[in-house]
């Protein structure tokens, strides 16, 4: 289960973010980026954040820690912004909190280089959960303390919006042509060899157990939250085994440029205009 904290103060909305995520302080004195249960995208966004965020972590990718945040809408009463007030009012109960990476900056492939190994791991993971939300237009990657962090998995696993089609999802291809890390020659084969064996029935059972019941109950076609959990696991397990064969990479993806290692591009003359 996710650790549960209680929201004590709505601090500020985040400048970006279609779902109007906000910064919230909790009773453990932590600051969290909160994704609201009452946001237009609905609770499946929160389920996707938990399943993908927990899975990515277990595969060794960097994702901010997740908690569930109990919210009493009363903390929104003093909010001057009506849209925020409405969001808080409709989000009483459990919401999703993500550790706030203070000082993190949005990822820019022109300023920060990744190895083909790391690019391969991120692309393979995104293919597994069918995350179409990591393009150069909207990278949903942060750089924090000099390292790459993955955020925003709310739009992944599109099959959970139409469960009867989920059994065919295992074989569905993933177009990585638009992926923000495509220019770094992602080594998909190495990522698949390392990561696919880690995606076991046991691991998926553990991860899906972290999703609060309240976000799973009442799902049409399922008689219990556990049945929905099994559906997530049952879709990801076969997909993990074969997805590397179905990743379509951009034909124009440039080969990984020679570099000393991952990180900020400083004085690297192989990249035109690349000064960090
Ligand atoms: N854990 C975090 N630490 C620091 N900043 C964050 C964190 N999570 C999100 N942000 C910031 O908030 C912005 C919006 O977050 P996020 O992308 O998760 O929201 P969203 O509503 O799903 O966005 P969209 O749908 O527009 O991509 C991010 O682009 C980033 O700048
Ligand atoms: Mg985003």
Which keywords apply here?
binds adenosine-5'-triphosphate; alpha+beta; 5-stranded mixed β-barrel; binds magnesium ion; 2 domains; globular; HipA_2; single chain; 3-stranded antiparallel sheet
Short description:
This protein is 26% helix and 19% strand. It is α+β, with helices and mostly antiparallel strands and 276 residues long.
Give your account of this protein's structure.
It comes from Streptomyces tsukubensis. With 276 residues, the chain is α+β, with helices and mostly antiparallel strands. It has two domains: 102 residues; 159 residues, no CATH class. Helices cover 26% and strands 19% of the residues. The protein has six helices and twelve strands. The strands form four sheets. Strands 1-2-3-5-4 form a five-stranded mixed β-barrel. It has a three-stranded antiparallel β-sheet with strand order 6-8-9, with no helix packed on it. The protein has a two-stranded antiparallel sheet with strand order 7-12. Helix 1 packs across helix 5, helix 3 crosses helix 4 and helix 5 packs across helix 6. It is globular. It starts with a strand and ends in a 12-residue tail after the last strand. The C terminus is likely disordered.
Radius of gyration: 19 Å
Name the ligand types. Answer: adenosine-5'-triphosphate, magnesium ion
Q: Main sheet, how many strands, which sense, barrel? A: 5 strands, mixed, barrel
- In terms of DSSP E residues, the strand content is 15-25%
How helical, in percent, are the residues? 25-40%
SSE arrangement, N to C = EEEHEHEEEHEEEHHHEE
Arrangement of strands in the largest sheet: 1-2-3-5-4
Structural class determined from secondary elements: alpha+beta
Number of self-contained structural domains: 2
Number of strands: 12
The helix count comes to 6
Overall outline:
globular
Mean pLDDT: 91
* Unreliable spans: 269-276
- Alpha-carbon distance between the termini? 41 Å
InterPro entries: HipA_2
Protein name: HipA-like kinase domain-containing protein
Biased composition (Low complexity): 251-263
Region (Disordered): 251-276
């Amino acid at each position: 289960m996710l650790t549960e904290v209680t929201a004590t103060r709505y601090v500020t909305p985040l400048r970006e973010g279609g779902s109007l995520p906000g910064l919230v302080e909790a009773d453990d004195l932590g600051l969290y980026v909160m994704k609201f249960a009452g946001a237009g995208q609905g609770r499946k966004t929160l389920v996707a954040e938990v399943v993908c965020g927990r899975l990515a972590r277990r595969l060794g990718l960097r994702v901010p820690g997740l908690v569930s945040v109990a919210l009493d809408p009363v903390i929104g009463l003093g909010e001057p912004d009506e849209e925020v007030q409405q969001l808080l009012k409709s989000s009483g109960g459990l919401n999703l909190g993500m550790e706030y990476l203070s000082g993190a900056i949005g990822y820019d492939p022109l300023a920060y280089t990744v190895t083909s190994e790391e690019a391969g791991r991120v692309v393979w993971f995104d293919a597994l959960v069918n995350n179409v939300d990591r393009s150069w237009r909207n990278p949903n990657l942060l750089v924090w303390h000099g390292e790459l962090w993955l955020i925003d998995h709310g739009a992944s696993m599109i099959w959970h919006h139409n469960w009867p089609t989920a059994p065919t999802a295992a074989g569905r291809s993933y177009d990585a042509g638009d992926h923000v890390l495509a220019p770094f020659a992602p080594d998909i084969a190495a990522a698949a060899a390392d990561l696919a064996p880690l995606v076991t029935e046991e691991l998926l059972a553990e991860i899906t157990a972290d999703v609060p019941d309240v976000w799973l109950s009442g799902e049409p076609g399922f008689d219990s939250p556990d049945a929905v959990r099994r559906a997530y696991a049952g879709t990801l397990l076969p997909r993990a085994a074969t997805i590397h064969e179905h990743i379509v990479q951009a034909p124009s993806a440039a080969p990984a440029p020679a570099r000393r290692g991952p990180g900020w591009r400083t004085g690297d003359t192989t990249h035109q205009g690349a000064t960090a």
